[in-house]
Amino acid sequence: MPATAAERPPLPLRPDGYGVAQPTPPDLVDRRLPTRDILPPPADGRFVSTVGPVPDDVLARSTWKPECPVRAADLRYVTVTFRGFDGGAHTGELIVAATVADDVATVFGDLYAADFPIEEMRVVEPAELTAPPTGDDNNTTAFVCRPAVGLTRWSAHALGLAVDVNPFQNPYSKGDLVLPELASAYLDRDRDLPGMISGGGPVVAAFARIGWKWGGHWTSPVDRHHFSRTGT
Known about the structure:
Layout: E1 49-53, H1 56-61, E2 75-83, E3 89-97, H2 101-113, H3 126-130, E4 162-164, E5 172-174, E6 177-179, H4 202-209, E7 213-214, E8 222-223, E9 226-228
Antiparallel strand pairs: 1-2, 2-3, 4-9, 5-6, 5-8, 7-9
């Protein structure tokens, strides 16, 4: 049987600390993995969203710390219904800036109405920031207290002003750096597979309606899964 995401071995590292890009394993070339629920799915299959202060237990398992460039009081915990690749309705969680929380919930309502599939949506935990890369991550997420890729300044994620959607189907690339590192098959944007984001598709349109920019329009890097309020 092919290795699952949790079982894949760590990748060899580049000098910059990221994993060396590898050919996409056959079982991930057309990735449609079922969602593992971390929150109860909606009872009736309809879209549901909630917005509120970040609960203490959620904040404790997130990457927030006092040194982050945003106060915990200025963040919000958002839950939304999303459509999985299994066709089912699931509940995901995000942490975002309070100023954009309602808008972000609206975006995912639009994506649910469009039946755009998402594999998983959960809060990033501290151990993930230093874990050896396996290159198979596909978590749709928002707040992560970290610098921008390859830079020393804070990422828009550290402000709660960015969302990444289906990173595996929509990889980041710059030169020979590909993130996730096993997602190189998805650099071919002529493929039309579920979960991929295109300039004329529902994901870009939904974020554009709230004034957010898409990293897929950048020249270098090209960040196909990244949307931000700041444009960075």
